[in-house]
Design goal:
heterodimer; A: 272 residues; mainly alpha; MetI-like fold; 11 helices; 0% strand; B: 251 residues
């Protein structure tokens, strides 16, 4: 038992990692095989469900031709610019709301009404104002992604214990020092949770705006493929987006572990 | 009353600023029609019946999709927490599909089920299912062992224990997951209708926008936004009701 779970033995570690990887991905492989078999069984047409191998071939040819990278790059560019803006605005606004009464008075009703609203309905209005190019898409992403960050930041900073603040004050911390060295680090776990909620939202909105406005980007290409009844293209888009979404979420979880290495949650077993 | 007035006064200020800006044409009145025009357009839409005619299919799609997702998602989530084999098979799939943008499925649901209600219901069902599954899973997994043991020792069977112990103790997390799903249902409903549909509120917004009747478009946009907000508030009240026994027991 002790030899198996001994984390220092590199061979054991590699075998262990491989086993858990296989166990983890087995059902995804099973799903892909089932897809392939079902599509080839003749019960559905190529149009309804192209076999996975055909979709993979399409992705491969797009990747070799360079088309995939351009569309993917555009989608990710819009997602990231909008997402970064949302993070910066969200943290600044959330901090202001948690620390000053005026900001809280003004923004609290706006946030509490705006958060549950389906903000994507404002798309036609945003197009009217900002046109159909990158600016309006990025604006939509920012608007939709900023709310989780703001609410998480407000809750995080309000939840910082008085003892921490008093001790810092007692040791002569100025407002700015208090903010950077006490409040923001102490609120970081909650802020990160908000940011982690905001990232998939940003990707959803980026894809949606591309679908609705057309043009390049994964969403636009999928919509075009759908209009031309090119279902291989549609499924290729879905597989690409699923992979990208998964990688982004995992990457952010990694960033969280890095940033919060000092925090007690790093030593607790993960729940997700 | 006075407290509510002070609390919501920023919204009033915004509304007045909006009215003043568009009244004196600081920005073109097609980009930002005055609130009074929007109110008039709203009344016209209600009188002509356009709003009700399009709201009915939208709410039908959203409601059916959401209810299916709640039923199916709760069962799958609890099953994942209680039977290891289910978790081994379904867990990685949930993990892989959770971050996937559901709006990407719009073209596929159209290929499968066409332009009508079916494709929207399927999309809303698929999108809303995942938050419900995750809520139910996390809730059921963290059921206190003491409660389970006591129920067992008092002779409860597996199903009975599920109903009397696991579901009540998982309820807060399940309800939280459903709240996320509710917001998602509105988003998916409007986006799918904006992109492919012949009727529905999203379609009405796109139609009015393309025709240049911007005041009416704003009226529908604000209506949908308000519906989303109202649904969330009503849901929260209902959820508090459903959890009232918990507060009473804890205090």
């Amino acid at each position: 038992m002790s030899a198996v779970s001994d984390p220092r033995n590199p061979v054991v570690r590699i075998v262990w990692a491989t086993c858990s990887f296989v166990a983890h991905t087995a059902s995804i492989f099973a799903l892909l095989v089932a897809w392939e078999l079902f599509a080839r069984s003749g019960k559905v047409t190529m149009f309804m469900l192209p076999p996975f191998s055909a979709v993979a071939e399409r992705i491969w040819s797009d990747a070799v031709g360079g088309k995939l990278w351009m569309d993917l790059g555009l989608t990710l560019y819009r997602t990231f610019v909008g997402f970064s803006l949302a993070c910066v605005i969200g943290v600044v606004l959330g901090t202001a709301m948690a620390r000053t009464r005026l900001a809280r008075w003004f923004f609290d009703p706006i946030i509490s009404i705006g958060f549950p609203m389906p903000k994507v309905v404002f798309l036609p209005v945003v197009i009217l104002w900002l046109g159909v190019f990158d600016v309006s898409k990025i604006a939509m992403v920012t608007v939709e992604a900023v709310f989780p960050v703001v609410t998480a930041t407000v809750l995080g900073i309000q939840g910082v214990g008085h003892e921490l603040i008093w001790s810092a004050r007692n040791m002569g911390a100025k407002d700015r020092e208090l903010l950077w060295q006490v409040l923001l680090p102490a609120a970081l776990p909650q802020v990160m949770t908000g940011v982690q909620v905001a990232l998939p939202v940003a990707l959803i909105v980026a894809i949606f705006t591309e679908m609705a406005m057309g043009g390049f980007g994964i969403g636009g290409v999928m919509m075009q493929a759908s209009r031309f009844a090119d279902s291989r293209g549609v499924f290729a888009g879905i597989v690409e987006i699923a992979i990208v979404g998964y990688c982004l979420v995992q990457a952010l979880a990694f960033v969280r572990r890095r940033l919060l290495r000092w925090h007690q949650e790093a030593h607790a077993p993960s729940t997700v | 009353m006075r407290a509510a007035l002070i609390r919501y006064s920023p919204l009033l200020i915004l509304a007045v600023a909006w009215q003043v800006t568009s009244h004196f044409e600081f920005v073109s009145s097609s980009a930002l029609p005055p609130l009074t025009d929007i109110g008039r357009a709203f009344i016209d839409l209600v009188k002509s019946g356009d709003l009700q005619k399009n709201a009915a299919p939208s709410l039908y799609r959203g409601g059916v999709g959401l209810l299916l997702a709640i039923g199916f998602g709760t069962i799958v989530g609890i099953a994942m927490a209680w039977w290891k084999p289910v978790n081994v098979v379904v867990g990685p799939l949930v993990e892989a599909f959770y971050p996937m943008p559901k709006s990407a499925l719009i073209p596929v649901t159209v290929i499968w089920l066409g332009f009508g209600d079916g494709s929207k219901i399927l999309l809303i069902f698929l999108g809303c299912m995942l938050p419900v599954i995750i809520g139910a899973y996390n809730g059921a997994r963290s059921t206190e062992q003491v409660l389970v043991w006591s129920a067992r020792s008092m002779g409860a069977g597996r199903l009975r224990m599920m109903w009397d112990v696991v579901i009540p103790s998982a309820l807060p997390e399940i309800l939280n997951g459903i709240r996320t799903a509710l917001a998602l249902a509105f988003i998916l409903m409007v986006t799918s209708e904006l992109i492919v549909a012949r009727e529905g509120l999203g379609n009405l917004i796109g139609f009015l926008g393309a025709n240049g009747s911007y005041a009416a478009m704003y009226a529908v946009v604000l209506t949908v936004a308000f519906m989303g907000f109202a649904a969330d508030r009503i849901y929260q009240l209902a959820a508090q009701r459903a959890l009232a026994w918990r507060e009473a027991a804890l205090s």
